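Structure in, sequence out. Go:
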């Protein structure tokens, strides 16, 4: 355990990273200047704006909970009472004084802490996850994770003053459970640019494709699922096709019913996302890659149908792919476009193709694939999910 005096110095240094790395959004993200009435340091009496002589009440970390949402303390972390003015200066995008919050110190690295929290909170809806550096302070690293549980959510911020000998190995963790209205800007942050992919109408001969049949109503249940199976037919995959030529990899999903316009009220939920994805291990090595948090996945494709909250119920269609980026949300790079061929909205199938060179695979090579469909509601990250197989499937390109 570090000495309290060293931790106080670390707090002084950390506070200079006051700019939250809230990502750009297509929606109207509140300006920090609009938060002057949310308990910032200017509104705190001067006698409370004083760094304490030692870290107050350093103790073994305990969970943070409110309204049924529980965020566990990071294993081995020391909990302490951060002065209110520090919290409000460091996190200016939300009114943290109206939230249930906890602060901790850990000796572990930032990405390790964020990864642990991402896994530990998997039963909730993961809205945003990122590890990066503020543009004006590239020497610092800040990790953020936002989860949602109905009308409340949790904001997790993990950071350190990595450039200081005093702060080496010290990571600050802040957990805040708030009303969702304070955190919904993060949901907008991951929304694609306005506009949707348009199908080319190209005719594809699927008779020479490798196909995988899947039974009806065999939904996956796990972290982030409702307490009972919900039969949501657009997420029930019935057949999957894969083939290639010298240039492209072709993929097709057939579902148990047509893809509906979103948002959709269904089974007392509001469904906002339907995604059809394929994780691909291009080098047959499960020790490399991790796209979409799948160990071994070097790249992943994604058919995306959605109407995110806060965007006037606009409906989006995208055909994307992602490469592995350990600092990105769920281990993904920025989205790149594939080619939308046929199907989609009001059809029970979707066809798309991707350049082999974009996916870093070649004709004749052997890859492992993991296809699935999942839908997401406002309450459940895995509202309904169906996997073709519970294991990787090996496919040799022609």
């Amino acid at each position: 355990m570090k000495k309290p005096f060293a931790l106080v110095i670390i707090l002084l240094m950390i506070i200079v990273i006051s700019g939250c790395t809230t990502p750009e959004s297509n929606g109207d993200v509140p300006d920090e200047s609009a938060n002057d009435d949310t308990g910032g340091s200017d509104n705190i009496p001067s006698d409370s704006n004083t760094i304490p002589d030692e870290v107050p009440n350093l103790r073994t970390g305990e969970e943070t909970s409110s309204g049924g949402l529980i965020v566990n303390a990071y294993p081995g972390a020391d909990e302490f009472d951060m002065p209110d003015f520090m919290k409000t200066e460091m996190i200016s995008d939300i009114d943290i004084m109206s939230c249930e919050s906890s602060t901790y110190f850990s000796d572990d690295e930032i990405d390790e802490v964020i990864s642990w929290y991402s896994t530990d909170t998997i039963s909730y809806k993961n809205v945003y996850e990122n590890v990066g550096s503020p543009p004006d302070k590239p020497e610092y690293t800040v990790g953020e994770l936002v989860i949602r549980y109905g009308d409340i959510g949790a904001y997790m911020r993990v950071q350190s003053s990595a450039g200081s000998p005093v702060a080496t190995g010290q990571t600050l963790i802040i957990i805040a459970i708030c009303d969702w209205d304070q955190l919904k800007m993060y949901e907008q942050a991951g929304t694609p640019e306005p506009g949707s992919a348009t199908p080319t109408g190209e005719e594809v001969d699927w008779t020479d494709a490798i196909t995988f049949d899947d039974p009806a109503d065999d939904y996956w249940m796990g972290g982030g699922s409702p307490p009972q199976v919900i039969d949501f037919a657009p997420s029930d995959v019935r057949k999957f096709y894969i083939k290639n030529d010298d240039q492209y990899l072709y993929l097709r999903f057939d579902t148990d019913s047509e893809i509906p316009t979103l948002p959709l009220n269904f089974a007392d939920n509001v469904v906002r996302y339907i995604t059809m994805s394929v994780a691909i291990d291009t080098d047959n090595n499960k020790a490399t890659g991790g796209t979409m948090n799948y160990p071994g996945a070097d790249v992943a494709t994604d058919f995306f149908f959605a109407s995110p909250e806060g965007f006037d119920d606009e409906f989006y269609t995208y055909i994307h792919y992602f490469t592995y980026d350990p600092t990105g949300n769920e281990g993904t790079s920025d989205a790149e476009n594939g080619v939308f061929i046929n199907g989609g909205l009001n059809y029970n199938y979707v066809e798309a193709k991707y350049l082999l060179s974009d996916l870093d695979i070649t004709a004749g090579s052997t890859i492992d694939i993991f296809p699935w469909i999942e839908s997401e509601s406002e309450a459940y990250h895995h509202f309904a999910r169906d996997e073709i197989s519970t294991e990787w499937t090996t496919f040799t390109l022609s």
